């Protein structure tokens, strides 16, 4: 009862308060309609001497303060300076955009050129041929090797040449597809060495009898017969040829007078009515070969101005090449000899004098005892050398400006005058995997290494790595870069490589199944792809043309070249040849 009375009392008080709310609303409306006063206008006389106006005036009515000539001149200079700075900013942006566009175009030029060349459809009919007359793709059609004068096809022994080492004229001399050279029809060769000279007339070959030949596309001649040669290399304008006795002959192919001084014709004791040619200029190994039974050279390679070899006792040696005391364009070594006393700070060594690479032939074991290494193979770039031993270890010495030694590029590693182990492959294999080097090859400034891995179960796999210069796609890993110190895998090779042939800046590989893969520089058509576009990863090339073939270009490019077991490949500076090997 008391609660009810309390609620009724509160309700009455709320009812009585309603009129007061109405009065408040009316007060609010009255305040809204009252006169508005700008407080800033009231206080303006105390704050500024200028009359205050609540409403902004227009620019025409604004009273601009008077300025002196110096102030006006200064204001003008400030405006001009701001405009010049703004103009410089825009110019800088335009320069950055231009440099970026030029860099992108340069780095992507192979793709751009490839798109431009192949953007039209290759359908050989009358209308298409007329349209190709004014098209860039007409060049590819015209430069396909003409074989109408070839009497034989790939089933007959001979020699095919792709690219050219002759000076390029307006038409960019060179075969973009392998062309058969009629001079070698029905010939079988032991070895071929393509010249790095621009005249293209110093190519060398060893015929099936072991005679040394000099040849070009138009002529062939014998320059040194009866030597039973098996391998020939060029270095510093001199040919170095290995015979079956295990001797290396020094042959000045560009100096006929010096060559004839060392040639002597003798009469055979067995057949007195016959004469034979004797040659006496050879690398002197008597003072260098000191091990018991060490009397033969089993393998060698050459660089720009140096030679490295392996003896039958597994020892490595090196020497400077040429017939002059010092190369004209190089006054010091780059460490490519592997001898610390023949570094870049020492006098260049005399030509054709052998030096033992002692730090490569010998090493220390865990007990600091000296033991002998068994060197199996050496490979030379222009100014660097690789070597591998029987244990599968890889060594390098020489110049490392592009990372061709597989070492980090630094001031200390720029030139290495002594053998240094290369072992930066562990990140690509499992912890339990064991790997060893089984093959090495070098181009001018790039190195290629074949590694064989085996696990605890005896399973073996083969991997291919490259490092060094790859500006023209030599690395084969899909990149164009001039420095690759970290060994990078070549992932596009699915079958074991049976034969490597490294030119100046291009590579040919013959796989175990006979297929040919190529990559690298291709300005002269040395890759044999039918175009002059450089390639940055291994790719197949069209098959060899046969007499009477009437293939359209698209049909030809769908074919793949497979070599026969007796066919071999030799790469030069800007050309490559396929020949039948004995």
Q: Tell me, what is the CATH class of one domain?
A: Mainly Beta
What structural class do the secondary elements suggest?
A: alpha+beta
* CATH homologous superfamily assignment of one domain: Regulator of chromosome condensation 1/beta-lactamase-inhibitor protein II
Number of strands: 31
Describe the protein in words.
This protein is α+β, with helices and mostly antiparallel strands and 582 residues long. The strands form 9 sheets. Strands 2-1-31-30 form a 4-stranded antiparallel beta sheet, with no helix packed on it. It has a 4-stranded antiparallel beta sheet with strand order 3-4-5-6, with no helix packed on it. The protein is elongated, with a radius of gyration of 40 Å. 20% of the residues lie in helices and 29% in strands. Strand 23 (446-454) and strand 24 (460-468) form a beta hairpin. The protein is built from 10 helices and 31 strands. It has a domain at 159-510 and 537-580: Regulator of chromosome condensation 1/beta-lactamase-inhibitor protein II (Methylamine Dehydrogenase, Chain H). Mean pLDDT is 84; it is low at 13-28, 120-126 and 140-148. One of its GO terms (cellular component) is mitochondrial inner membrane. This is Protein FMP25, mitochondrial. Pfam families: RCC1, RCC1_2. RCC repeats lie at residues 392-453, 462-513, 514-582.
């Amino acid at each position: 009862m008391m609660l009810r009375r309390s609620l009724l009392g509160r309700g009455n008080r709320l009812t009585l308060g309603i009129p007061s709310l109405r009065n408040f609303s009316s007060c609010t409306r009255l305040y809204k309609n009252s006169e508005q006063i700008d407080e800033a206008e009231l206080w303006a006389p105390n704050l500024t001497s200028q009359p205050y106006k609540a409403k902004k005036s227009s620019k025409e009515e604004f009273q601009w303060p008077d300025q002196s000539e110096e102030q006006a001149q200064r204001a003008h200079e400030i405006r001009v300076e701001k405009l010049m700075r703004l103009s410089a900013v825009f110019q800088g942006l335009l320069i950055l955009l231009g440099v970026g566009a030029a860099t992108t175009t340069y780095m992507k030029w192979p793709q751009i050129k490839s798109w431009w060349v192949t953007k039209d459809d290759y359908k050989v009919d009358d209308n298409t041929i007329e349209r190709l007359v004014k098209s860039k793709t007409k060049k590819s059609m015209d430069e396909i090797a003409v074989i109408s004068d070839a009497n034989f096809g790939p089933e007959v022994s001979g020699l095919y040449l792709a690219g050219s080492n002759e000076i390029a004229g307006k038409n960019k001399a060179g075969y973009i597809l392998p062309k058969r050279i009629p001079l070698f029809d029905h010939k079988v060769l032991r070895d071929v060495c393509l010249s790095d000279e621009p005249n293209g007339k110093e190519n060398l070959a060893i015929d099936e009898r072991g005679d040394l030949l000099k040849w070009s596309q138009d002529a062939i001649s014998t320059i040194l017969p009866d030597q039973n040669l098996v391998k020939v290399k060029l270095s510093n304008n001199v040919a170095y040829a290995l015979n079956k006795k295990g001797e290396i002959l020094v042959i000045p192919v560009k100096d006929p007078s010096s060559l004839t001084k060392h040639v002597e014709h003798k009469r055979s004791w067995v057949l007195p009515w016959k004469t034979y040619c004797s040659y006496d200029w050879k690398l002197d190994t008597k003072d260098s070969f000191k091990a018991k039974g060490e009397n033969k050279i089993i393998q060698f390679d050459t660089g720009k101005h140096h030679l490295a070899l392996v003896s039958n006792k597994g020892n490595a040696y090196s020497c400077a090449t040429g017939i002059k005391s010092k190369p004209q364009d190089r006054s010091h070594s780059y460490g490519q000899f592997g001898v610390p006393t023949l570094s870049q700070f020492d006098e260049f060594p005399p030509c054709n004098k052998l030096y033992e690479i002692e730090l490569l032939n010998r090493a220390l074991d865990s007990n600091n005892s000296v033991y002998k290494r068994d060197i199996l193979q050496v490979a030379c770039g222009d100014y660097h050398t690789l070597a591998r031993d029987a244990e599968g270890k890889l060594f390098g010495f020489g110049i490392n400006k592009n990372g061709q030694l597989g070492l980090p590029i630094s001031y200390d590693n720029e030139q290495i005058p002594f053998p240094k182990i290369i072992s930066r492959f562990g990140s690509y294999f499992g912890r339990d995997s064991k790997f060893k080097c089984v093959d090495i090859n070098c181009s001018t400034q790039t190195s290629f290494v074949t590694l064989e891995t085996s696990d605890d179960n005896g399973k073996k796999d083969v991997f291919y790595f490259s490092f060094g210069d790859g500006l023209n796609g030599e690395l084969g890993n899909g990149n164009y870069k001039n420095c690759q110190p970290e060994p990078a895998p070549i992932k596009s090779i699915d079958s074991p490589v049976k034969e490597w042939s490294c030119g100046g800046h291009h590579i040919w590989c013959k796989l175990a199944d006979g297929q040919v893969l190529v990559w690298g520089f291709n300005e002269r058509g040395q890759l044999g792809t039918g175009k002059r576009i450089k390639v940055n990863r291994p790719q197949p090339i069209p098959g060899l043309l046969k007499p009477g073939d009437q293939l359209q270009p698209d049909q030809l490019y769908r074919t793949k070249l497979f070599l026969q077991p007796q066919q071999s490949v030799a790469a030069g500076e800007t050309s490559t040849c396929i020949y039948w090997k004995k």
